[in-house]
């Protein structure tokens, strides 16, 4: 943003009645910006977008098998400028660059150079703070990436990469999206508190809570075994709240939940894989068994 744009922004945000009542305040603002003009012209500040994967690689491992499409990461971003990194979670937060609780970024994107004085930027953050609180945080629609995008537009009049902003749409357009809604709600609660999500939060509940369903270690799929598994799944489903009549999506969700749970328990019983690896294998097997993309309709 240029000097004139900064001045125009700041003056328009200063109430006209106060400008009339306290002309000295307006003069102070103008003199402050004028004094900074030479520094702004000579010494711009680099604006950096730091990009993190909240899932620590687990999204890439699970997404194809579980959602039927590849999700590279669960993106979190912060804007680094003036020696600090600014991000949104439990309100607008900032830490010295390199000292945020999210560790090292997996990508660093140079957004440009800003000539906005730090004081003007901090006043801007104060003004928008009422829209970025822990209560207004929404993982799918009003998150850290939306904040980073708004800040980038203010500082350098550009947007952050579209693949980051479009991630919620990619996830929710999957036919299996209802299966991960509990996980999304859990993540939203964590981010609102200002905490950093842990890896187990990115494993769907179905693969973290094995039930009492009988698990067969025999890989042969005999007709009798299939019948037994079907009856077990039906019994487990009835113990939950019955889905609404004709609601095929709910029925599929329950069915797949049970199958992934049994598969996960069987894999873990062998003791050869870690939980994240077992989760990946269990979801892959179930998706392949049902034909992935059309599993929600069977």
Automatic annotation (TrEMBL):
PPPDE domain segment(s): 45-185
Keyword presence, Heme: no
InterPro entries reported for this sequence: PPPDE_dom, PPPDE_sf
Comp. bias regions, Basic and acidic residues: 222-250
GO biological process, one term: proteolysis
Highest taxon of the lineage: Eukaryota
Pfam families: Peptidase_C97
Entry GO MF terms: peptidase activity
Disordered: region residues: 217-250
Statement: the UniProt record of this protein carries the keyword Protease: yes
Coiled-coil spans in chain: none
Keyword terms: Hydrolase, Protease
Matching PANTHER family: DESUMOYLATING ISOPEPTIDASE, OS02G0814000 PROTEIN
Similarity comment: Belongs to the DeSI family.
Name of protein: PPPDE domain-containing protein
Species of provenance: Vanilla planifolia (Vanilla)
């Amino acid at each position: 943003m240029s000097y004139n744009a900064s001045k125009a922004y700041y003056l328009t945000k200063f109430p006209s009645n106060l400008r009339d009542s306290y002309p000295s305040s307006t003069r102070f603002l103008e003199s402050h910006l004028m004094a900074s003009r030479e520094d702004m012209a000579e010494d711009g500040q680099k604006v950096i977008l730091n990009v993190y994967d909240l899932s620590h690689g687990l999204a890439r491992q699970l997404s194809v098998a579980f959602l039927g499409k590849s999700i590279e990461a669960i993106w979190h971003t912060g804007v680094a400028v003036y020696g600090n990194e600014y991000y949104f979670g439990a309100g607008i937060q900032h830490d010295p660059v390199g000292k945020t609780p999210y560790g090292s970024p997996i990508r660093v994107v140079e957004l440009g150079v800003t000539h906005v004085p730090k004081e003007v930027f901090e006043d801007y953050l104060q003004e928008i703070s009422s829209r970025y609180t822990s209560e207004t945080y929404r993982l799918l629609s009003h998150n850290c990436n939306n904040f980073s995008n708004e800040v980038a537009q203010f500082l350098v009049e550009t947007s952050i990469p579209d693949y980051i902003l479009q991630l919620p749409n990619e996830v929710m357009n999957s036919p299996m999206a209802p299966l991960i809604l509990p996980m999304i709600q859990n993540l939203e609660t964590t981010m609102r508190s200002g905490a950093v999500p842990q890896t187990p939060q990115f494993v769907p509940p179905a693969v973290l809570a094995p039930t009492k369903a009988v698990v067969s270690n025999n890989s042969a799929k005999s007709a009798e075994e299939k019948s037994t598994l079907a009856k077990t799944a039906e019994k487990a489903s009835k113990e939950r709240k019955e889905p609404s009549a004709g609601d095929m999506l709910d029925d599929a969700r329950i069915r797949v939940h049970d199958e992934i749970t049994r598969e996960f328990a069987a894999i873990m019983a062998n003791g050869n894989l870690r939980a994240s690896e077992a989760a990946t294998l269990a979801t892959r097997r179930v998706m392949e068994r049902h034909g992935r993309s059309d599993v929600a309709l069977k």
